[in-house]
Amino acid sequence: MQVCVSVCVGEENWVDSRTIYIGHKEPPPGTEAFIQQRFPDNRIVSSKYTFWNFVPKNMFEQFRRVANFYFLIIFLVQLIIDTPTSPITSGLPLFFVITVTSIKQGYEDWLRHKADNSVNQCPVHVVQHGKVVRKQSRKLRVGDVVFMKENETFPCDLILLSTSRDDGTCFVTTASLDGESSHKTLYAVQDTKAYITEKEVDSIQATIECEQPQPDLYKFVGRINIYMDNEPVARPLGAENLLLRGATLKNTEHIYAVAIYTGMETKMALNYQSKTQKRSAVEKSMNAYLVVYLCILISKALINTLLKYVWQADSNRDEPWYNNRTDTERQRHIVIRVFTDFLAFMVLFNYIIPVSMYVTVEMQKFLGSYFIMWDDDMFDEELGERAVVNTSDLNEELGQVEYVFTDKTGTLTENNMEFIECCVDGHIYVADAICNGQVMPGATSMDMIDSSPGPGAREHEELFFRALCLCHTVQVKEEETVDGIKHGIHQGKSTSFYISSSPDEVALVEGMKRLGFTYLRLRDGHMEILNREDEIERFELLEVLTFDSVRRRMSVIVRSSTGELYLFCKGADSSIFPRVISGKVEEVRARVEHNAVEGLRTLCVAYRPLSPEQYTEVCHMLNGAKLSLHDRDKRLAEAYDAIEKDLILLGATAVEDRLQEKAADTIESLHKAGMKVWVLTGDKMETAAATCYASKLFHRNTQILELTTKRTEEQNLHDVLFDLSRTVLRQHGGMARDSFSGLSGDCTDFGLIIDGATLSAVMRPAQEDSNSGNYKEIFLEICRNCSAVLCCRMAPLQKAQIVKLIKASAEHPITLAIGDGANDVSMILEAHVGIGIMGKEGRQAVRNSDYAIPKFKHLKKILLVHGHYYYIRISELVQYFFYKNVCFIFPQFLYQFFCGFSQQPLFDTAYLTLYNISFTSLPILLYSLIEQHINVDILKKDPSLYRDIAKNSLLRWPIFIYWTLLGVYDAIVMFFGAYFLFDNTTFTSNGQLMTTNTQMMFGNWTFGTLVFTVLVFTVTFKLALDTHYWTWINHFVIWGSLVFFVVFSLLWGGIIWPFLNYQRMYYVFMQMLSSGPAWLSIILLITASLLPDVLKKVICRALWPTTTECIQSADKLYEGHLSEFTPLASLHAPSKAGGHRRGSGNQGNPRRSEPFTKKTMFTRWQKQSDYSTFTPLLRFADGHSKHAYSGGAGPETSV
After folding, report:
1. Model confidence, pTM
2. How many CA atoms lie within 13 A of 256 on its CB side?
3. Is 682 annotated as a binding residue?
4. Can 375 be counted among the known catalytic residues?
5. Helix/strand/coil for 221
6. Is the pLDDT of residue 479 over 50?
7. pLDDT at 464
């Protein structure tokens, strides 16, 4: 009897684990109850809507936006009560906005439906009744046994049962999941790997118990119960048995596997979850301004309502005879009448809230993001990748960054490891320079320094080399054909090359190959190595204790051909030294510290011989931990901890991770732009500090402050923090400092180094230590006074904590996090702007980021150029929209004082409707896409210009008030200018006086049309005056908009339209333009409106120019070639000169070009040792010093 445990996915979550029956076979009678659970089918749904729910769901989402909902209310009010304007005036713009957004979202969802259907309908081969049958992917069910061939992509999450390879392994690539193109080895269940035909696989009787679906790609806990003679045999299942949906089978002919998670429960689908919505500072400003304008709107409506009843209090001023109210209206309650009039005024003035601004901003962000993706300067030929925009909502935030948090490995450095040396019992071995299997140019044959150890040490040396050949997860490929070229063929012989998910491991195995020990392959559970005597040694691989970021080490247990058992362990010095009981610890420790100071990545290697009894005990511990379904990770960690002890130290290795091209130049530019750069890394302090000096984060005269475990062991944390605080505050005389603009040029630079353990103590809640309540504040105060901060030994979560701490500080600075690996995802998601680098540690960072760039050097352009431009453009867009709507609606407000507050519209319905949609929308959209107020080259050359737009400076309240007052002034000029010019004026036509009838042509609608004409021309010319970058497109759109307005007005008033009930604009526009005074008044009023803004610009530029304005003026003088002729520092505004911490764009600042604190450097690529200092670089001419120092050439790479 089948019992349904749960009916839907939601209920399944209450069950801790699930039981799957392979091939849907019942277990043998008497073993366990057969309870068939219900699971979802294999249909993937990435779309948001269906045909039936699109309209209601989309409408609900759109009307959640305040502006849309507000206009809907206004539209309904116009329908319900008698309002002065037609419902069309609100309904049409709202309908346009809603329709455009619906079409865009509907089209995007239709594309998602198409993609889903193509995936859901692709064929899959399933074993049923001993035969392979074909079915659609969406019909796959949990428990089905799937047959997969090479290069096929897995349709769901599967447990590997058997493969075509004898050892029960298969190779997969997970590029579509995490971007790692390396081949990963997965293992079939030991007891089922012998079942290799359809009939044999179909005969398997087994159940799988495993955890409920969860999104972590690298974790899986389960066990399989295989029934042999009605007795179940339990075997553990882990991530090494799990084939993930989206991964591809490689180098394996075929496999059989059972489906365990299908459809939306696969790990790939669970990772679809959308990230939290990030909002930019500009969007917050927009919302604040909207609230202000809403208050203005309500105030206007209240004033007019009040004045209407004051006006009508006099019986002589009641409604005119031709507009006599009905008895029903007169008898209506005064409260209802007042409320109705208030709503009518709200409708009349509602255009002050710019609904079309939201659409324009959306289009600007969406279209603008393509300029980042199309930028050829951010195309990397080596990777063949361009910049990617995942979130266009944050374009302008790139221009507001105050703190940059960067990872080190793979972000500042190349993550391209080179084996440098190894140290065995104090003896140092330096092989050829190895870089990913290639001999570096200039390298000589093997150079073994101190290569004559005694006879006793020879055995240790060979054991060390064997340990590195065996303790890894490297895969070997004999040869590979790519585009018809065979790789791995060297001098006619087939040579192996190595693939691993860790570049360190490949560098170490390659290094051992150069030192005489070659790792050949893993075959039939045996690892084979070729020793110096060209003899093949075989070691049986018994256990792999995998690496994790908490233990920071990995181990293998092997059995040699003579039967000896060894545990080989390699890992970080901090995790190996405490577990060592013998060996030349001090000699190795000294060399490790020396290499760390050189900026090299070090690993320690140790071993432990195991007796058969010890090995049996180890197996028991590991199997017990692996079979547990609950807390498996915790129990495994405890088992590993118990096994990896009593080690004998063998030696240490050093590999180098070179600094990325132009990394130092980029960091220097970010500093000059006023940004604080923090490096957050898991590396040890000495290695990270050396990288910081090389990348110009720290300088020779930077005073380093240490907040590390070593110091807090000598002094308690409270005293250390107060000492550091006194040091930085004494240096700056206790002055309050602007956290963004940084130190003045005369102050000492401080650099802070903190490690993960001390950070945990600083972040600890106050209740644990009575004095720790204000540790965070003191720590933040120290950080604010430091020009650079290095956080080493950081766990991924600590990186996010640091970002969150700075985000939540009093100044609420805008933060940016940049990294390339899965360990950087948490800080990328936490920061205001997250940038992923397309590195070698997979694509998790890229997938979770807002923007992705190929290399760290591209950060300079995306911030200093694109970020700067986007912020300038959108700030003008927002201010301009509010300005033009004040100009539009304030004359309407003034007009009420001249029409007895009768809610008479000043402008025609067509003008009300089309003002924001057609007449004034395109010029500002184009401006916000292509405006370049300063040349690109100047922005790159002078990073300090970024400071001009810092702290949301262009959307501050004083500037907003200026734009609003300018709009009010223009509205007053337009209205009263037209009023006085036409007061008591008799117009002539063809030299004759007008009759009384034609005088009507110069009534309400002519007056309104004249004001509207001046309005459209004034706001368009205002934008033209603000435009610095003119192209034919600008000319076409700006003048084209004005032509369109004129042509529309002529057609609208020149033809009797049959669908209109009334034709109040008939011939009004032509009659107005046939009058000479009308032409003159239009020109006069436009000039008078624009004059104050022009005068203000001229006076401010002459007396108080900003740096940006100085450079604009100079660039015009040099006809756009300023960056080629003059040092930009000389153009900086006098008020700001000398005020920037890092030279304010002065490329010749001697402090910036001085070398870091590194006395000598060993040049490893030359035949002789070359000890040289960097000091002579200073003697070079200015034009060469930059290239001599920041180029990626040979010697510099060893730092």
Report:
1. 0.70
2. 28
3. yes
4. no
5. coil
6. yes
7. 93
